[in-house]
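ok new one. same drill as before - structure tokens go in, u give me an amino acid for every spot. 333 of them this time. try not to just spam alanines like last time pls lmao
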């Protein structure tokens, strides 16, 4: 397993990060979740990403229990704050000082740890002054409850403003967590340059485009029961990738994967990790076998001619509009 520095810091994370967005306390039993976490550890993954909103706080608790008994100093635990949680009262949402301070305490309790390595703003909060948010993060770092601070799905302008305030308050933003894959490249034009300028690198989510890049969805064929594309709760996220044109083009990537002796999932992960300013890719898994398969992408280098061929195959199915990096304009409560 590769370890890579996160931003301009001395903090290292594994190039593949285990995430539990849709799985823990939702799609798999707690027993199966624990087995999968242990399979990740056995494969060399020591970095784990979660959020208080996942399964309305329950996913953090499942992860905390699964990691119980591990040497804390040998782990990197990441979580996030922003989305409505608990009873969804007016202050159970956003990046106010009140919500951030209460949320970090809740996350630490559920994760069974005295600190998290990286605490992330899960979206940008338009209803709270940025100065208030950044001061709360600065105080959390100084208290030792979080060692580093990151953001998720912030625009280039928001990253610039946040990084400036962080520097003035004597701490630093070190990471951005955006969606990024062969198909979804909206961060390349603005977010990545702003991040590089400010010593920030990317931890990317959905590197397989929600499973679409595995090639399991075929043009003209109804998604199988039990897949994300057939689930009303997750199918809307995949709609942008499910056109017959895009699905047909994805099937044309199979010869490239075969040439490299990779599965389609491994190809999508290897492609993501090869792109500049990407430190890590988050992978989720329902079973130990899935996480073990993902590990094979870790050391793959795709030759430049094949990287170019991937772009040619996907063509205008690739989404590049930088304006699609967005946060909700107001709190959803």
């Amino acid at each position: 397993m590769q370890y890579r520095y996160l931003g301009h810091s001395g903090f290292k994370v594994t190039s593949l990060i285990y995430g539990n967005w849709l799985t823990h306390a939702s799609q798999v039993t707690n027993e199966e979740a624990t087995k999968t976490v242990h399979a990740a550890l056995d494969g060399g993954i020591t970095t784990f990403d979660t959020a208080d909103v996942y399964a309305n706080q329950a996913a953090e608790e499942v992860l905390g229990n699964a990691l119980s008994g591990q040497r804390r100093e040998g782990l990197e635990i990441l979580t996030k704050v922003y989305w409505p949680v608990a009873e969804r009262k007016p202050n159970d949402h956003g990046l106010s000082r009140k919500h951030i301070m209460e949320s970090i305490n809740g996350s630490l309790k559920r994760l069974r740890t005295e600190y998290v390595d990286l605490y992330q703003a899960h979206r940008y909060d338009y209803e709270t002054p940025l100065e208030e948010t950044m001061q709360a993060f600065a105080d959390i770092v100084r208290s030792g409850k979080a060692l580093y601070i990151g953001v998720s799905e912030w625009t280039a302008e928001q990253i610039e403003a946040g990084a400036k305030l962080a520097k003035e308050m004597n701490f630093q933003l070190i990471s951005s967590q955006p969606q990024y894959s062969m198909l979804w490249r909206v961060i390349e034009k603005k977010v990545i340059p702003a991040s590089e300028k400010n010593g920030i690198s990317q931890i990317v989510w959905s590197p397989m485009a929600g499973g679409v890049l595995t090639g399991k969805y075929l043009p003209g064929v109804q998604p199988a029961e039990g897949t994300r594309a057939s689930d009303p709760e997750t199918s809307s996220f995949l709609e942008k990738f499910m056109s017959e044109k895009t699905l047909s083009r994805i099937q044309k990537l199979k010869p490239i994967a075969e040439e490299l002796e990779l599965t389609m999932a491994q190809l999508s992960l290897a492609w993501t990790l090869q792109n500049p300013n990407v430190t890590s890719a988050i992978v989720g898994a329902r079973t130990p076998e899935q996480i073990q398969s993902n590990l094979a992408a870790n050391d793959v280098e795709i030759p430049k001619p094949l990287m170019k061929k991937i772009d040619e195959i996907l063509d205008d199915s690739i989404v590049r509009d930088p304006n699609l990096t967005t946060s909700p304009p107001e709190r959803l409560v």
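The CA atoms of residues 74 and 210 lie 29 Å apart. and btw Residues 3-212+264-301+319-324 form a domain with the TIM Barrel fold (CATH 3.20.20.100).
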